[in-house]
Amino acid sequence: QVLLVESGGGLVQPGGSLRLSCEASGYIFTMAWFRQAPGKEREFVAGLSRSGMTTAYADSVKGRFTISRDNAKNTVYLQMNSLKPEDTAIYYCQMSKYWGQGTQVTVSS
Fold first, then answer.
1. Which value, to the nearest 10 degrees, does the dihedral of the CA atoms of residues 77, 78, 80, 85 take?
2. Which of 1, 10, 48, 59 places its Cα 20 to 30 Å from the Cα of 35?
């Protein structure tokens, strides 16, 4: 059993930044961030390989979001810059079949 715990969400104005963290209870492999806005399906945001050498981003966040990892801390991060109201959602980290509980990000003036 793997436990994933997200943190770092909150309320931010448009154009602002947030950094989300996802700490795992054990060794981390390929990791991903997803998000789910009210009334919408959960969607892929960003992914990162075990080595950290390969990344993938949804078109909607390319150039604004950066996924990274610290294997020594069993933690993956999502740096979110130039945030837009449409980025408002609950953000989840995922590893294999495991999901975190989510952290709320709200972008509003």
1. -130
2. 1
- Tokens 């209870």 belong to which residue? 25
Q: Give Cβ neighbours of residue 53 (< 8 Å, ≥ 6 apart).
A: none
Task: For strands 89-95 and 75-80, give the pairing.
Answer: unpaired
Q: What is the residue-level pLDDT of the chain in tens, covering all 109 positions? A: 889 999 999 999 999 999 999 999 988 889 999 999 999 999 999 999 988 899 999 999 999 999 999 989 999 999 999 999 999 999 999 999 999 999 999 999 9
| Alpha-carbon gap, residue 107 to 36, rounded angstroms | 14
How far is residue 85's CA from residue 82's CA, in Å, rounded to a whole number? 10
CB 91 within 8 A of CB 83: no
39: Cβ–Cβ under 8 A, 6 or more apart, which residues? Answer: none
